[in-house]
Design goal:
This protein has 122 residues and is mostly beta strands. Helix content is 6%, strand content 47%. The chain has one helix and nine strands; from the N terminus they run αβββββββββ. The strands form two sheets. Strands 2, 3, 5, 6 and 8 form a five-stranded antiparallel β-sheet that branches. A four-stranded antiparallel β-sheet has the order 1-9-4-7, with no helix packed on it. The longest helix is centred in the first third of the chain and has 7 residues. The protein is globular. The N terminus is likely disordered.
């Protein structure tokens, strides 16, 4: 039970439906203070994109204070996902990443995303 709760705390979005609104925030903001990982191990992010119509821009943003992460707090730049292209996209958080992390999505028309943090990406 504890593992399930920990896993759930590392999810940004779970089948979050996007529209053409710019900088739609992920459903969840992740507190890296709760994300235990081995020292020196990079924390990876996985974004699974499905049902994409139009392009998708994803911003990985972070801030030192809770509930204040904004789309302007950019820490990782991701390539634009092409129109109709679906699949998994990955990013690595920088070693000096602020404690609170959130994703911001800008879909050209619509799309669905599920995104989470993990210690390893296959």
């Amino acid at each position: 039970m504890k593992q399930q709760n920990f896993d759930r705390s590392l999810v940004f979005s779970s089948a979050q439906v996007l529209d053409d609104t710019a900088n739609t925030a992920s459903t969840n903001e992740i507190d890296l203070g709760n994300a235990a990982s081995a020292e020196g191990e990079p924390i990876k992010g996985v974004i699974n994109v499905t049902a994409l119509s139009g392009t998708l821009t994803i911003k990985v943003c972070a801030h030192a204070s809770a509930a204040t992460v904004a789309a302007t707090d950019l820490i990782v730049t991701m390539p634009v996902v092409g129109s109709g292209v679906t699949g998994q996209y990955h990013f690595t958080l920088p070693q000096s990443c602020p404690r609170y992390v959130k994703l911001f999505y800008s879909a050209g028309t619509s799309g669905t995303v599920t995104a989470w943090l993990t210690a390893a990406v296959n």
